[in-house]
Every structure is written in C-alpha cells, then in structure tokens.
Design brief:
This protein is an alpha+beta fold. 38% of the residues lie in helices and 14% in strands. It contains 17 helices and 19 strands. A 5-stranded parallel sheet has the order 5-2-1-9-17, with helices on both faces. Strands 11-15-14-12-13 form a 5-stranded antiparallel sheet. A 4-stranded antiparallel sheet has the order 16-10-18-19.
C-alpha cells in the first residue's frame, strides 16, 4: 500500500489556485497547434473541456457514444447550478460554499479541490450568460436564485426545471464553433473500449464505431475522460439508460486507481418504482423541496388505508400528518442534504408509514405553498385575500411558473395532478461521488490521462450537495483543466504526432477484438438485461441505502458468481461488424459486473457511516451516520486482476481551514 500524492500546492488555501496558475509551465499558441488531445464524453464536463481546449488552439478529438453531444445525460439535470455570487445578499461567500460542500460531503472530500471549485464557481455563471443560457430572472431583471438541500442561503441559478439542458446547449454551441473551425474533430456514435499506454503515458484510445462495428485507433498527447458516473450498476436509477462505467473501468484496468466506489448518492425525490417492468427511474428536481413539504400519515392505519386505495392523502387532517423532516431537522427542515432526507424517508417507510401500493413512497405536498403564494399575489394585486378560489388559482399559477415542466412530467408518468394531490416520491440512485482518483491537476495515476466531472472522485466526498454536479463539470472543463493540462503538455511540444502503428496500439486493439469475439460467439441462453437486472437487485438490496457486513460479504460472493454465469450464458444476437446495440450493452454490463464487486469490497472495508455510505453497524442512537476518524482518507483501489485482488492505496485527508465536527442539520 502506498500513500498517494495529491500534488496540492503549498500556502494558504485562498491563494493556492492563484499561486499555482502563476507558476505552471505554459504552451505558447504556435505550439498548441502541434498537440492533440482526446476528450471522451461530451456532457457538461467533456463538452466544456473540448470547447475550451480547442479555443486555446489544441487539436481536439471528441468522442461520444450518443448520436449527438446534445444527448449527454447532463441534459437531464433539472434544478440548477450553484455559484457563490451572493446575489440575494443573504450571507453567501466563496468560503461558505466551500464549507457547505465539505460538510455536505461528510468531511470526505479534498479540501483544496473544493475551495478551488467554490472560487471558480462565480466565473461559470458569467460564462454561461455570455453563451445565452436563459437563467431565471427576478422582478428587477437580475439573475434569480433558489435554495437547495444542505445550505442556508440561496445560491442556485436555474432555468425552470431544464437547467442541465440549457447549460449543455451552451457548451454544445461552443463546441460547434470549434467543430466549424476544424479545431474539434467530432466522433459521434463511437465508444472508447481501451486506453493505449506508450512508455508509461496515455497516448490514445481504441474506439468502436457503433454504427459499422469497426474498431479504430486514435492517438493523442493526452486523453481526458468526462464520461460521467456508474450508477447504472444498480440497473434502476435516474441515469440515462446508456450511461455506463466502461471508459473509466478500462482506464482503471490500465493503471488508473478507482477511488471510493461505494460513495453513491441516493436522491430523495424520485418517482417511486411501480413494477418489475421498469428499466429506469425518473427524477423530480430537488428544487421542489423549496416549496413542497414532505410527509407521511402519522397513523399506521391511515397508511394502510392509502396503500389499499381506500383513503386519499387530501382526506388526512393536518394533525394526522407527520412532516418528519421538519420534525427531525428543524433548522433545515425539508432542505436537509440528500443522504439525510433519503434515509429518513426509508426509515418511515420501513416502519410501515409509506404510501402507494408498495408502501415505498412518501408525499411531497404543495398545498401550503399554493396558498402562501396565492395570498401574496392577491395582496400584491390588491385583490380579495379571503377569496379561496382566487387564492388557489393565483397560487397554482405561481407554482406553475417555477416548476411547471416538472409538474407536467410527473402527471404524464403517474397520471395524477400534483396541483390537486401530493406527489409521491421515494429515494433512488442518482449520482456517484466515487470515481477515478485524480490529483490537484485532475490527472489520474496514469501520466497524461485525466478525469473530469462525475468521472473523478475529487469534490463531493461522501455526499454531493444538490446543484453542485453542474458546477463541478463546468468548473473542470472551462476553468481548471485548460490550465492544468497545459503544464503537462509543455513537455510535448517537440514530440510530434503519436503514431498508431506501434506494438502498444496493436496489443490494445487485439485485446478489444478478442473480448468482442468472445461475447458475440458465446451463444448462451440469457439476454444481457437478464444479468443486469440480477446485478441491480443485489446492488440495491445489499449495497443500497443501508449496508451491513453480512450483506456486503454475500454481495461480493453473489456478484462474482453472477459474473461467471454471464460469461458462460449470455447470448448476443447479430454480428460484431454491424450496428449491434446488444453487443455494446453487453460490454457495459460486463464492466458493471466487475465494478459491482469492487463497490461491495470498498463498502465492506469502510467501517463507518458517512454521507451516502451508511453502515448499519455505525450509527448514533438517533439513527444518524457515525463517522470514524481512522477512515478520514480516500480509498483508492489499484487493479490487480480480479476485483477481489484489488490493492488499497490511501490519500489521507487533512482539514486545516475547516473544523471536522459532528455533521448536524438539526
């Protein structure tokens, strides 16, 4: 076991990033034209990085497995993006965003990276406004803000419930400008299946053209992964169905350490599971918790009646409702962090107070907000505040202006009008804080291989605050990587183009082809989804919202067994040299089956509860997470063959600017 060097600059935390930029080596504009960079993934992190690097003058090759960068999963983000601009004048600052992020991550993130994130967050909003992103504005025309879980200020900029889409279109337009100039060569419908290492450095990738099945070699002086998270290991999640771990896992198998894989976020406001027919889950934005109140029936008999369809939520009197987040966490109420809200909902449902037919749902109720906004609007307009029908009408109009598309989406899926009856929500897998280990430069343990956005582990610790995913992706792509990668590439200005006819490229391509041939010729009995669903059940039941040693040990054994079954019994129709989505899916599930075992191993190793990682053996008398100081480190795993053989490396986490204390939202 080694101790990892994060390469964090010396000096006061407020000066680290500025001092770093002042002292790094640069590549002059004429020499940037001599350097190639591969960017895999074109969501917010990859798209913004590709656009920024091309704007600087590098030659960029960008790859996505979708038919267009516009289909990246970033487009699904709803509620907003954080930035410490303090437009509301409510006490926000760079330090407070830094503090909230480290505390929200349960003191398991790297302090220096988080401060840098908070520092550059203010630039992101200006960048996006300049691109034409239509952020919401207040009455005076200034950019509006709302609050998200885990904070006491309003710092979240938003565009209704479509923030991710609008931000992605901004990055996409910046990419398109560079594609038009010839500085970005775009490879749609291409999937990275290996990293090529030459003389110890990442010098290219092997990709499969998903339309023709052709295997291609692409070289560069550096490779950047912006490929998102691995939550689809659970099968049911809020991720796009194509989201996968393959690029990150191939990097891991080539020497990139995988950090904190068990740190997975469960989002509290998702539409509940309705049956085994489902292939994915749908998120309801956390922004809804600004105005929606979360509750369950206080009486078991009322909950049973609702589950049986004999009672409606609107028929339960106020005094018979348990607003459990407001009761347990009075300081933050419904805006506690996601991990806290998710476990609280699970506890109430496990105790028998859940609603809907499965008993695994709680209510998110907007009735009080409709009345509050309605009375306010009636007062502003000089109308009768005692006219109940008028107040309700005005209140619904206000809620519609803030969350209309989310309400419409909910009604289409559930076939219930959320203006008239409370929404039903339940926690679901939503984001992964773990990922490829990177240092302060965003470089992995493989020289020349970088990981940005959700693909790396660095900024969110054991729990991500809402609206910080978009912030990190754009911060890494627009404002961090373009500096740090230049420092590395300054040594490559005389290297020349990287040839693709080397033995290293030959070996990597042969490895990819052998694996594809094995899959396509397996001729087993079961579909890819058969194995993916079984993996998902193991992951959710034994590595989900709460974990214990017994379940985790069983999960490790069961996943290893399932992986053997997969390679014996998976059946893939068609050929490898054609469009074959089932073959592409099989490769991704094969990687999930390896990651899933490492996930469980990491969760078993971490004998504490922190953030999204809740070990039942380590909780307070009140059922809260119980952190242990001896686990105040990043667990980074080195590939050694089978996941069970992975070797642990530690990065000790030091906190000099924030006091590590009990994480309380009461």
């Amino acid at each position: 076991m080694s101790v990892l060097d994060s390469k964090v600059p010396k000096g006061p935390i407020k000066d680290k990033w500025t001092t770093y930029k002042d002292k790094i080596d640069l590549v002059n504009p004429a020499n940037k034209r001599l350097i190639d960079i591969i960017v895999v993934g074109t969501g917010l992190a990859g798209g913004s990085a590709a656009a920024s690097l091309a704007e600087l003058g590098y030659n960029v090759k960008a790859f996505c497995f979708q038919d267009s960068p516009r289909r990246a999963h970033s487009i699904a983000a709803q509620g907003g993006i954080n930035a410490a601009k303090n437009y509301q004048g409510d006490g926000d600052s760079t330090y407070r965003l830094f503090y909230d992020t480290v505390k929200g991550g349960d003191y398991r993130s790297r302090e220096a990276n988080v401060y840098r994130l908070a520092e550059v967050s203010v630039n992101i909003i200006d960048q996006c406004v300049a691109q034409g992103v239509p952020f919401a504005r207040d009455y005076g025309g200034l950019l509006d803000n709302r609050s998200f879980g885990g904070v006491l200020v309003s710092r979240t900029f938003y565009a209704k419930g479509q923030t991710g889409q609008q931000l992605l279109l901004g990055a996409y337009s910046a990419m398109n400008r560079q594609i038009g100039r010839g500085k970005i060569k775009m490879y749609n419908r291409h999937e990275m299946l290996d990293v090529v290492i030459v003389d110890g450095k990442a010098r290219g990738i092997i990709a499969r053209n998903l339309v023709t099945g052709e295997i291609e070699r692409h070289s560069a002086h550096a490779v950047v992964l912006g490929t998102g998270g691995y939550g689809n290991a659970f099968y049911l999640s809020t991720y796009a169905m194509g989201s996968n771990v393959t690029a990150a896992w191939k990097a891991h198998k080539r020497g990139a350490f995988f950090a904190n894989p068990c740190f997975t976020q469960i989002h509290p406001t998702c539409i509940p599971v309705s049956g085994d027919h489902q292939s994915k889950l749908t998120l309801m934005s956390e922004s809804l918790r600004n105005d929606g109140r979360i509750w369950v029936p206080a009486k078991i008999e009322d909950a049973k009646a609702i589950q049986a369809g004999k009672l409606k939520p609107t028929e339960i009197a106020e005094e018979n409702r348990d607003y459990f987040l407001e009761r347990r966490y009075p300081a933050f109420g419904n805006l506690v962090p996601r991990d806290v809200a998710s476990r609280a909902a699970k506890e109430r449902c496990d105790a028998g107070h859940g609603v809907n037919a499965t008993g695994e749902a709680v209510y998110l109720d907007f009735a009080a907000a409709i009345q509050r906004y309605g009375k306010e609007q009636a007062h502003v307009k000089g109308l009768d505040e005692n006219d109940a029908a008028l107040v309700t009408q005005l209140g619904k109009a206000m809620i519609k202006s803030k969350y209309g598309n989310l309400f419409q989406m909910y009604e289409k899926i559930v076939d219930q009008n959320p203006y008239e009856t409370p929404m039903m929500i339940y926690p679901a897998v939503h984001y992964t804080m773990g990922g490829i280990w990177v240092d302060y430069n965003l470089m992995t343990t493989v020289p020349g291989l970088y990981a940005i956005g959700e693909a790396n582990f660095s900024d969110h610790g054991a729990n991500r605050l809402g609206a910080s995913a978009l912030m990190q992706g754009l911060a890494d792509g627009y404002f961090v990587l373009p500096y740090t990668i230049g420092d590395y590439l300054s040594d490559d200005i005389r290297t020349g183009a990287i040839p693709t006819d080397s033995p290293e490229f030959d070996a990597a391509e042969n490895h990819v082809k052998e694996r594809l041939d094995k899959l396509i010729n397996n001729n087993g009995k079961y579909s890819v989804d058969h194995f993916h669903k079984r993996l998902g059940k193991i992951m959710w039941n034994k590595c989900g919202m709460s974990r214990n040693a017994k379940d985790l040990k069983e999960a490790i054994t069961e996943i290893a067994t399932l992986r053997k079954e997969f390679w014996q019994d998976v059946k893939i129709p068609g050929r490898a040299d054609e469009y074959n989505e089932e073959l592409a899916k099989a490769g991704r599930v094969a990687d999930f089956l390896e990651l899933g075992e490492l996930f469980a191993k990491d969760a078993l190793h971490r004998e504490e509860s922190c953030g999204g990682h809740f070990r039942e053996e380590y909780q307070t008398a009140e059922g809260e997470a119980q952190r242990r100081k001896e686990f105040q480190y990043v667990a980074a795993w080195e590939y050694k063959g089978e996941p069970s053989d992975a070797a642990l490396h530690k990065e000790e986490l030091q906190y000099s600017d924030i006091e590590v204390k009990e994480r309380s939202y009461k």
